Amino acid sequence: MKTTNLSCTVKLPDNFRRDDVLDFHRRDIQMIAERVAEDLLLKGLMWQGHPACLNIQFHDRHATIGLAIDGLIKNETDALIRMASMVRRMLGLTQAIEDFEQHYRHHRQLGSLIAGHPGLRVPLTATPFEALTWAITGQQISVNAAVSVRRKLIQTVGVQHTGGLWCYPDAHQMAGIDEAALRRAGFSQAKARTLIVLSQAIEQNRLPLDAWVNAPIVDTPLADEMSRQLLEVHGIGPWTVSYALLRGFGFLDGSLHGDAAVRRKMQRLLRSDEKISEQWAQYWLADFSPWRALVAAHLWAMPLEG
């Protein structure tokens, strides 16, 4: 088999939190599509229709990146640029967290969160499609259950890199999966239909994820248009959109008031005796625009006790 191998180096800031990235990709303890070591991430994915394995090796001030592709690609220079851009997004290096921390480091409530997690960035999925499908998978079920369904989905599609990792499917592959196969993988009928409709819309370029992810900056007008189009897909609601924009594009202003973990941590942060409602969480987060999703990420990182 003819292969393509790409490599580059990405600089890391002094306060880079490597473990946040590794923990995000460590969710599946069976490690069929991702393998994580102390300073290494291997991830199976699709690259221009070919199985590929992404290798991110972390060092003190930089990361060395490799992409081993099972097949030949047309333009290696363009692929190298896209790979470096993808990795910078995945590591959260495009996020203006310094502005956020400077603005809120003395805030009565957020100040303690920032002091506890200096340099916190939101790790992203390799592609927006992965973020969208993960968000749909995780709707109204536990993280452990969602991880199990995700694993079965990857195995159902059944693409494996020569290095051994299974590859997370792309929209082209998902558009060709029938509903019965998704049901056997553990998806409800509604989620299975949403995944198929979403994948077909992306495959037909009615949802231009590539154009969106390659936009210079995910600003509010673009995010509003993305949200509008995604919400037209039956089965995708506001939480799914906000989560996907955060994990897939690095948009930091989605309101994750519908996230149960965010509300639980908010209750502890605000020392509230009563549970936080979605309406109140939305009201409280509104003050922190354009960083509402980054506030949610700090809440996720906050311990529930102690």
Automatic annotation (TrEMBL):
Which EC number applies? Answer: 3.2.2.21
InterPro entries (UniProt xref): AlkA_N (IPR010316), AlkA_N_sf (IPR037046), Alkylbase_DNA_Glycosylase/TA (IPR051912), DNA_glycosylase (IPR011257), HhH-GPD_domain (IPR003265)
Quote a single Gene Ontology cellular component term.
Answer: cytoplasm
Domain HhH-GPD as annotated: residue spans = 137-304
The Gene Ontology terms for molecular function here are: alkylated DNA binding; DNA-3-methyladenine glycosylase activity; DNA-7-methylguanine glycosylase activity
Q: Which principal EC class is assigned to this enzyme?
A: hydrolase
Entry-linked Pfam families? AlkA_N, HhH-GPD
**Coiled-coil regions listed:** none
Q: Which UniProt keywords apply?
A: DNA damage, DNA repair
Q: Which reaction does it catalyse?
A: Hydrolysis of alkylated DNA, releasing 3-methyladenine, 3-methylguanine, 7-methylguanine and 7-methyladenine
Which residues are in the DNA-3-methyladenine glycosylase AlkA N-terminal domain?
9-127
Instruction: Give GO terms for biological process.
Output: base-excision repair, AP site formation; DNA alkylation repair
Q: What is this protein called?
A: DNA-3-methyladenine glycosylase II
